[in-house]
Specification:
heterotrimer, A mainly alpha, B mainly alpha, C alpha/beta, A: mainly alpha, ABC transporter involved in vitamin B12 uptake, BtuC, B: mainly alpha, two-stranded antiparallel sheet, 12 helices, about 70% helix, globular, Branched-chain amino acid ABC transporter permease (chain A), ABC_transp_permease (chain A), membrane (chain A)
């Protein structure tokens, strides 16, 4: 096994896991200027759903993924339409507080529903890996990266070329003008949040396959999505991929060079540096 | 007239708070200490978040740094605690001032995340520096009765509230308000907004660190996950917004309400207390978007909108 | 400028007063309830802040159930026999949301409002630190079950006791076992919290003084989700054994990633993780052969009058809660049992007398083993078992004679499983 080759691969694959988790977060932020503090708990809930479907009905997570996506899409759509839209035009504290409250409710609801026990989605292939030229490629992580790339492309195509996607982009750029052009903003927001929730659920299922989770595991996921989104840049379909790869590589290499205990120093130090030097992130659009 | 009545009410509240220990109910004093602590913390957050309009998500950094520095100096260098406390407060204030300069160039969500990163980075550094206790934290000697800590926390809370009142009614306060409603306009009329913002941030840091040094002694054991818990910042924010951001009494009122509700929830419902707290926060956002003291106030400035439904 | 209207300040005062009144009312209600209980004069009330919600809810439940089992068993036997009279045990739990701050105020509340004078601790060392300061200042005894941090007992406190050995002693038995199996090089990975650091330092010192070659040692931040690069590094150092000292999710992640990275060890051992049934459930067959440093297993040959043998304890627990007990639960029951012994020895539930009785208990023999209470409140002499996951179950493989149960050390490589 080649040490550095493997470490670089580890970093890239971890980038996939981090990036797919940030996809939804980045979309919601970019379009609505909404930071969803309940993002991590949404993901954990999706992981529980996939686990329940696997255990009770024997449905493989990759088969139940479309169903979970649709369920979360619908729930997110209604949540935005009925609740979040009520405060989204107020100052940004309000949405932060609201989603923080949602996070609290979700996390504690999950304790009541699923107990505080640690779970993981343990399929036959969860810990399998491919061997390629002396390098190990864990299957689930490889799939996460693949899904991230495919979903980023699909999201880009959707936003760039579909009618609805253009309405979303127009709303993101200038809400009032979009409204004057006849775009129904509440519906666009609901759609965006629904789409985001669906994507969050996909990220959550991957997290459940690659990690152990409990109802309290949402917080770190949200913070991770924050970092990836900022590093990659808000408001671009490729941001999560770029941010995920940068963070994954940095953590893998940094943890070997300096020791794993400094990973958080590196991560958050870099985040601060990026924010101070280039707040729009690596691929981000110009600051507004 | 109204001003005089306000002073009188302020005096009555402070007097009542001062006399509370006469009940010699240690539990009540313990809860009141926690409430005074959060009232002080929320007031410190209010300086930067409420008055200046910069949504900090990392104020716990100053609280934690104050606690850790004071403990480190007194345990490792055997300084008298009062000296260690002073050094810790000054150090944290300086830390806030220096980091405020680059961070306060950011606005909105970017500022929020930068401050969150600041708090997390501070915790990560502290966890890796043995002099600062590392991941193991510090154990401090157990001191006297709970009343001392109650009066100390109360003192900081009163200082914070009085300071806020003075700032609001000063030229400095006007500058902060101007920054909140339209920073570019303030700059264009020649106001040194950078200095004003950084000063507010540093003051916020100093108050947070003061609470931290008392907290360390009060708890007698501190470790990084406890004193750098991002939840502490969230509570400062929730309390301030619930009571009314940018007001003197708002953060105090928010701290009292949340502090008491938390205690009540914990004693009544064993499993659902956190769930209820979450629902309560959501309800406040949806039904009291400007905070309790903000309800009757007319909207000020472009950014001071309350919740209003999206128009389509 | 911002003017506060009189009306608003009035509102503020009214709301505050109302809330304080509600708080005081609630408190006095609790106190009344308690006196009516106490007037029955045949009940001993013991308080326990516990983590029903929050990050520690998982372990919190085990501790909660461990305490509860002792209460239920004693009450089923007619109560605790103190000076010829039987007293019912009444445990009062309050959710600390896993936060040390809340442990302070809840302990204070239980002491001053509810009149509770005897305590069992909340879970985890930071929470015990917080709760024990209140117990100490009110001079009421608290027995800790859920944290063996040495620092807790280095403060010179007189009212804190424990059923746990020091964290630094957890790994001794594991290393003894490995020694007999030809393991020479070991790699240590540990989390950055107090417990993990103390356990790791104790383990590394023991390893070095017992002829092991420590080829790798690193600390990672609590909650790390990707340790694959560390495993890659360890593989290069050709360590025979991996010893992980951290939290449940990190232990699971290390096994998962060791398999994914095809990093083979002759043995893998963890302090927290394998002893919990969820470990084998989460990992399936990949958990096979993993060793766990435990504090108690149902196979141990100890017994006492309350629970009977260790095996009978396990049966009682399963009957009540539907799952096998792990050491968190058993050590909690043992802590509760220590409290019972001290009350019996003191002949009363007076906190000072119970404290003195605890300090003078000397060597006790419970279903979890024989140990001696030290002057600083910690315990010494408990023989720590080691478990191994075999066919999805935790099997006791240490101390002798259980070492005959050891299977597959050295472990077969992942490709041959």
């Amino acid at each position: 096994m080649h040490l550095w080759g493997q470490i670089i691969v580890n970093g890239i694959l971890q980038g996939g896991v981090l990036g797919i988790s940030a996809l939804a977060f980045s979309l919601q932020w970019g379009v609505m200027d909404l930071i969803n503090l309940a993002h991590g708990s949404f993901q954990i809930l999706a992981a529980y759903l996939a686990l329940t479907l696997l255990n009770s009905l024997g449905i493989d997570p990759f088969l139940s993924l479309p169903l979970i996506f649709l369920l979360f899409f619908a729930a997110g759509y209604l949540l935005q339409l009925w609740i979040i839209n009520r405060v989204i035009s107020a100052n940004l504290f309000m949405t932060l507080l609201l989603t923080f409250g949602m996070d609290f409710v979700l996390a504690n609801l999950m304790i009541l529903l699923f107990s505080a026990d640690y779970k993981s989605i343990n399929t036959g292939y969860a810990n399998a890996s491919l061997h390629l030229a002396g390098i190990e490629l864990p299957v689930v992580r490889l799939l996460a990266l693949l899904f991230l790339i495919v979903l980023s492309v699909l999201l880009w195509l959707f936003l760039e070329y579909s009618r609805t996607g253009r309405a979303i982009r127009a709303t993101a750029m200038e809400r009032e003008s979009a409204r004057l052009m006849g775009i129904k903003i509440p519906a666009v927001y609901a759609l965006t949040f629904g789409l985001g929730s669906g994507l969050a659920a996909v990220g959550g299922v991957f997290f459940g396959l690659s990690n152990t989770f409990s109802p309290a595991a949402g917080g770190p996921l949200t913070v991770g999505a924050f970092v990836v989104t900022i590093l990659g840049g808000v408001g671009t379909s490729w941001g999560p991929l770029a941010g995920g790869l940068i963070l994954g590589l940095l953590e893998a290499v940094g943890s070997v060079v300096f020791g794993p205990t400094y990973v958080n120093v590196i991560t958050f130090g870099l985040l601060l540096l990026v924010l101070i030097i280039r707040p729009t992130g690596v691929l981000g659009r110009a600051a507004r | 007239m109204s001003k005089r009545v306000n002073y009188a009410l302020f005096a009555v509240v402070v007097l009542a708070a001062l006399l509370l220990p006469l009940t010699s109910n240690d539990y009540l004093i313990q809860v009141a200490t926690g409430i005074a602590m959060y009232a002080a913390l929320a007031s410190s957050w209010n300086l930067i978040g409420g008055l200046t309009g910069y949504p900090s998500f990392g104020n716990v950094a100053f609280f934690g740094l104050g606690a850790v520095l004071a403990a480190a100096l007194s345990v490792n260098l055997h300084w008298p605690y009062i000296d260690a406390a002073l050094a810790a407060v000054l150090g944290s204030g300086l830390f806030g001032l220096v980091l405020g300069l680059p961070l306060l160039r950011l606005r909105g969500h970017y500022f929020s995340i930068a401050t969150l990163a600041l708090a997390e980075a501070t915790m990560a550094v502290v966890t890796n520096v043995n002099f600062l206790g590392g991941g193991q934290g510090f154990s401090l000697p157990l001191l006297g009765s709970g009343k001392i800590f109650y009066y100390l926390m109360l003192g900081i809370a009163v200082l914070a509230a009085a300071g806020t009142y003075l700032i609001i009614n000063s030229h400095f306060g006007n500058i902060l308000l101007a920054i909140k409603s339209d920073e570019l306009a303030a700059q264009s009329v020649g106001v040194n907004t950078v200095l004003a913002k950084s000063t507010a941030f540093a003051l916020s840091a100093v108050l947070g660190a003061m609470v931290g040094v008392v907290y360390a002694l009060w708890q007698s054991y501190i470790d990084p996950p406890t004193v750098f818990d991002p939840g502490i910042t969230v509570f400062m924010l929730v309390m301030t917004l619930m009571g009314g951001a940018g007001t003197v009494a708002g953060p105090v009122l928010g701290a009292v309400i949340i502090g008491v509700l938390t205690q009540l929830a914990m004693s009544f419902s064993k499993n659902a207390s956190s769930l209820l707290l979450g629902l309560g926060i959501m309800a406040v956002v949806l039904f009291l978007p400007r905070g309790i003291l903000g309800v009757h106030r007319p909207a000020k400035g472009g950014e001071r909108r309350g919740a209003r439904p999206l128009r389509g | 400028m911002v003017r506060k209207s009189v009306k608003l300040t009035g509102l503020f005062m009214a709301v505050s007063l109302l809330l304080v009144a509600a708080l005081a009312g609630c408190g006095s209600q609790g106190a009344k309830q308690n006196t009516s209980n106490a007037s029955a004069a045949d009940t001993i009330t013991i308080g326990a802040p516990d983590a029903a919600t929050g990050a520690l809810a998982n372990e919190g439940k085990l501790v909660h159930d461990g305490y509860t089992l002792w209460q239920d068993v004693v009450n089923k036997q007619g109560g605790l026999l103190v000076g010829g009279k039987r007293y019912k045990i009444n445990l009062v739990f309050k959710d600390d949301q896993s936060k040390p701050d809340n442990d302070k105020s809840l302990t204070e509340q239980m002491i001053t409002q509810d009149g509770i004078k005897l305590f069992l601790s909340p879970y985890a060392s930071p929470n015990i630190f917080a709760a024990s300061t209140v117990a100490e200042s009110h001079k009421v005894p608290m027995i800790a079950a859920g944290g063996g941090a040495k620092k807790i007992f280095e403060r010179g406190y007189k009212y804190i006791f424990s059923s746990y050995p020091y964290s630094g002693e957890y790994l001794g038995s594991v290393l003894d076992l490995l020694k007999g199996r030809g393991i020479k090089t070991v790699a240590f990975l540990h989390a950055d919290d107090l417990f993990s650091q103390e356990a790791d330092q104790g383990g590394e010192a023991y390893a070095k003084s017992h002829g092991f070659d420590v080829v790798y040692s690193a600390q990672y931040p609590s909650g790390a989700t990707d340790l694959s690069s560390q495993l890659t590094q360890i593989a290069q150092k050709k360590a025979d054994a991996l010893i992980g000292t951290g939290h449940f999710e990190e232990a699971v992640q290390l096994v998962k990633q060791a398999k994914q990275m095809n990093v083979n060890f002759k043995a893998m051992a963890f302090t927290v993780g394998p002893t919990m049934p969820a470990f084998a459930q989460n990992l399936g067959k990949d958990a096979e052969g993993v060793l766990g440093a435990s504090l108690w297993t149902p196979d141990l040959p100890y017994k006492d009058d309350v629970f009977g043998t260790a095996a009978q304890y396990a049966a009682l627990y399963k009957q009540s809660f539907g799952t096998e007990p792990d050491y968190h639960a058993a050590m909690a029951s043992a802590a509760a049992e220590m409290m019972g012994l001290a009350i019996q020895k003191a002949g009363s539930a007076d906190p000072q007398k119970v404290r003195d009785a605890l300090a003078g208990l000397g060597t006790v023999h419970l279903f979890d083993g024989s140990f001696t209470i030290e002057p600083n409140g910690s315990i010494k002499g408990l023989v720590l078992p080691v478990i191994q996951i075999q066919n999805g179950k935790a099997v006791t493989v240490w101390p002798a004679p259980f070492d005959k149960n050891i299977k597959d050390i050295p472990l077969p490589p992942w490709s041959k499983r």
